[in-house]
Amino acid sequence: MMDRFVYEEAEQQPIAICICKQELYEGDQTYQVEDYIICDDSDCFKKLCIEKFGAMYGLLDKEGNVT
């Protein structure tokens, strides 16, 4: 027997925004570094590390330096 009520699914609201501007929802795979939430895309993770923390990304030379 069906009840008299009509149920509507509420539209899911984004919980956070990645640095790439992608909206993130409950259940999404993400990274958290300090106060930053980053989507599960390695390019966004690299971008955060380079832009916010001054990380270097490149090739390791024989002296152990990133170039």
Question: Can you give keywords for this protein?
Answer:
single chain; 67 residues; alpha+beta; 18% helix
Describe the protein's architecture and organization.
By secondary structure, the chain is an alpha+beta fold. It has a domain at 30-66. Helix content is 18%, strand content 18%. It has 1 helix and 4 strands; from the N terminus they run ββββα. A two-stranded antiparallel sheet has the order 1-2. Strands 3-4 form a two-stranded antiparallel ribbon. The relative contact order is 0.15.
**What profile does the largest beta sheet have?**
2 strands, antiparallel
Q: How helix-rich are the residues, as a percent range?
A: 10-25%
Average pLDDT rating: 87
The H-and-E topology, N to C, reads as: EEEEH
Report Rg.
20 Å
Number of DSSP helical runs: 1
The number of E-state strands comes to 4
How far apart are the termini?
69 Å
Strand content: 15-25%
- The strand order across the widest sheet is 1-2
Low-confidence stretches: none
Structural class: alpha+beta
Shape: rod-shaped
